[in-house]
Each structure stands twice: as C-alpha cells, then as structure tokens.
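Need a sequence for this fold. Nothing fancy.
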C-alpha cells in the first residue's frame, strides 16, 4: 500500500534536489557534458520529474529513524495541536492547505498569462504567413519531413529572437525587419518547426505544470531551465545529423542570431513569451556555449562510455535508494520524564494512522513511537487520521 506523508514529501524533495544538483554539475563541466550527451541527461531530468511528482512510500520501503532532535521537529509538525472549528489539525495539515491554495493560484495565473501573451501576439503582430520567402521555405521544410504546413508566421515589434508559440496552433514569431540570408532563414524556420514536430512545447508545458504543482520546490526552476537547454540541444542534433558541412553552417547561423539578439536586447519583450516559448537563441542564454560544444564535440568513445557509466551509477544509486529507504521520525521517550507519564490509557493516549499498518503513538501529547500493531495497548484508545479526524478506536 502506498503511503503519503510529511516524511515521503521530505524524501522526494531531498532526492530531487540532489538529482537536480548533480545534473547542474554535469551541465557546468563542459567536458563531462560533452561526454554524457543530452540524451542521457534528458533521461535523468525525466526521472527527477517522476521522483518529485511521486512522493510515496512503498510496502518494500525500509524506514530509517531520524536523530532525536530531527524526530522532535518532525513530530512537532505532525502533531494535531491547532483547533479549527471542531477539528484539531497539525502544521503539516496547514501546509497541505496552503499547498493546494498555491496550486490553484498559480494555475489561474498561468492561464491568464498564456491568454494575455496570445492576445498580445494577435494585437501587435503582423501576419506574414503568405509572404513568398517564408511560405516557400516552410513548404520545403514540411515536405522534407512529410508534414503539412500548418504554421502561422508573425513579425512582432519588440522581439529580438525567433520563437515558436502555441500548443495546438503553432505560430512562428520573428523579429520585425529581420535581415538574414535565405540559408539562415531556412535554419531559423527549420529549428522552430522541429520544436513543433517533436512536441517540445508540450514537454515544456508538462514540466511547467509540475513546477506549478510543486510551486514551493525551488529545484523545479533549475530543472525547467535544464529542460530548455536539453530541448535545444536535441533540435540542434536533429538538424545537423552530425554532418560537418551542415554543422559548421548551422553553428554560424546560431552565432549570427545570437549577436543579433544581443544587439537588439534593449527592445521591450513580453516576458511570458520569452520564458514559455521554444526559441533558437536568447540574448541572456548562459548555456549557449554548451550548445556549441555539443555541436562541435570530438571526444574519444572510451572516455564517453566511462564518464556515462559513472554518471549512471551515481544517479541510479541516489534515485533507487530514495525509494528503498525513507527517513521517519522515531525516537524513544526522554529519560527525565517520569515513568508514570508514559503509562498509556484512554485518557492520555491517542494514535495517528499513517496507513493500514503504521500508527504514531502519542501519550500526554508527546510522540512516543511508530508501531504496526495496537494489540499491546489498552482497548478504547482513539485513532485519528492525518487530518486530525476521529476514525476508530482500537
């Protein structure tokens, strides 16, 4: 039976933070990044997301006790001690309520921002879908990949980078009066089209959705940025096919568009569009150098394999350990408290049920232990759930 509690959420938070930190270390070491590759890192990002959104304890999980001090802190948060109407709740229950309120607020805010951004494009953008230079190039790209040309082309004042926006109705947005060669235009449009063909906007939306669900977890901000970089590396690889001539030309196009974005970075830009769209380059993109390294990498295969194996072992160890072991509060009673205070009866004792097999025992309001059987305790002691509601008597 799966168990969701303060301890399982805490374990998910710690594990995901460690995984995100390890991925960040790989990202910031150019040699390690080039050897590991974006595909392997993409798998780890996916596992990190799964770990964050699945904070449960399995039947095979082994419980490990916190230290006495940490156990007291956890017990303090889990102990029902706040009277609200006819129910006694814990600080953990209040956190769950704030968590839900935060989710609702952030979802509403995201939907409003998405609608504002779309209306902003329609209001200020200039439709260039039927311009020959755009339509002809996009038709060639779509035909080459056996896709229909459903793209809408817009030139938007204030834009300094090309982006693609929209989950169902893709809109390629270009800076107004963009001056580039036909070859560069091909790569710009191809890059944005590939984002749509490979559902990258949907991937970003899913990661963003989970960041909304876990809005209090700062690791997701880092994870979202890492996902952006991995998606760009993926598209770079698809376009170049590791062919030297194409890679060199494409890299030159990226450098040109990067310089152009920096040159016009002072122009106002709708912030939501910049964060939530798929783009070719950004003027403030700190991982642009790493994209070029991945494009132009030339490492010996044995070195790649060795580094990849080491990274896999480290990541897998952290990930699997977090499900096989979980830290929980469990400490013995203080020696300075009189023995009589810990004689359980129906007046001074109550249980909090975690699941069908585990009960937290409280005597005189003090957490005593976690047990999986109540047969050794007097009959008639009240049993509460995690919400502080009376559910049974033993």
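Here you go.
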């Amino acid at each position: 039976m799966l168990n969701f509690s303060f301890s399982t959420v805490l374990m998910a938070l710690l594990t995901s933070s460690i995984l995100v930190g390890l991925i960040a270390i790989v990202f910031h070491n150019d040699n390690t990044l080039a050897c590991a590759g974006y595909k392997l890192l993409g798998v780890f990002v996916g596992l990190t997301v799964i770990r964050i959104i699945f904070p449960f304890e399995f039947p095979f999980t082994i419980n490990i006790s916190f230290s006495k001090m940490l156990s007291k802190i956890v017990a303090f948060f889990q102990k029902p001690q706040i009277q609200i109407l006819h129910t006694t709740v814990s600080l953990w229950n209040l956190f769950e309520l704030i968590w839900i309120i935060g989710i609702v607020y952030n979802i509403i805010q995201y939907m409003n921002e998405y609608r504002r951004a779309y209306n902003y494009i329609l209001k200020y953008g200039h439709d260039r879908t039927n311009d020959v230079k755009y339509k002809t190039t996009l038709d060639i790209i779509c035909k080459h990949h056996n896709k229909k040309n459903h793209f809408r082309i817009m030139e938007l004042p204030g834009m300094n980078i090309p982006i693609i926006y929209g989950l169902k109705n893709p809109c390629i947005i270009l800076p107004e009066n963009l001056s580039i060669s036909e070859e560069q235009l091909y790569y710009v449009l191809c890059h944005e089209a590939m984002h749509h063909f490979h559902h990258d906007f949907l991937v970003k939306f899913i990661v963003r959705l989970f960041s909304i669900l876990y809005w209090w977890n700062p690791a997701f901000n880092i994870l979202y940025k890492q996902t952006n970089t991995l998606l760009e590396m993926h598209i770079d690889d698809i376009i170049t096919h590791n062919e030297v001539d194409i890679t060199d030309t494409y890299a030159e196009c990226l450098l040109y568009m990067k310089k152009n974005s920096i040159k016009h970075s002072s122009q106002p830009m709708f912030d939501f569009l910049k964060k939530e769209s798929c783009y070719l380059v950004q003027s403030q993109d700190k991982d642009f150098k790493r994209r070029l390294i991945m494009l132009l990498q030339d490492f010996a295969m044995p070195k790649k394999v060795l580094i990849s194996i080491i990274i896999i072992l480290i990541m897998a160890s952290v990930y699997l350990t977090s499900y096989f072991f979980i830290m929980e509060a469990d400490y013995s009673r203080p020696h300075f408290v009189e023995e009589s205070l810990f004689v359980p009866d129906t007046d001074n004792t109550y249980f909090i049920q975690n699941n069908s097999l585990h009960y937290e025992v409280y005597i005189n309001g003090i957490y005593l232990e976690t047990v999986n059987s109540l047969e050794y305790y007097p009959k008639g002691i009240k049993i509460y759930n995690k919400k502080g509601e009376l559910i049974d008597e033993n």
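For context: The radius of gyration is 27 Å.
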